[in-house]
Specification:
With 70 residues, this protein is mainly alpha-helical. The chain is built from 3 helices and no strands.
Length: 70
């Protein structure tokens, strides 16, 4: 499953568990405040952070592979 593979990959990055937990708490806080706009903004920020981490991981893996075959 692509989702599980990407989750495993990002969770291996240093500090990722803590960052994800902070995002989840911020999202839950906005929901508790019944602030849908803020909850949505925080969820999008979390997804953006996750996407950037995945792209960074992929880029680093590709660079390592290129160095090996060079």
């Amino acid at each position: 499953d692509l989702f599980l593979a990407s989750r495993r990959r990002t969770m291996l990055q240093p500090g990722m568990n803590e960052r994800a937990a902070r995002f989840h708490l911020m999202i839950a806080d906005a929901i508790q405040q019944r602030n849908a706009i803020l909850a949505r903004q925080r969820m999008l920020a979390h997804i953006h952070d996750l996407t950037n981490s995945l792209i960074s991981t992929q880029t680093n893996s590709l660079q390592s592979y290129i160095e090996v075959i060079s």
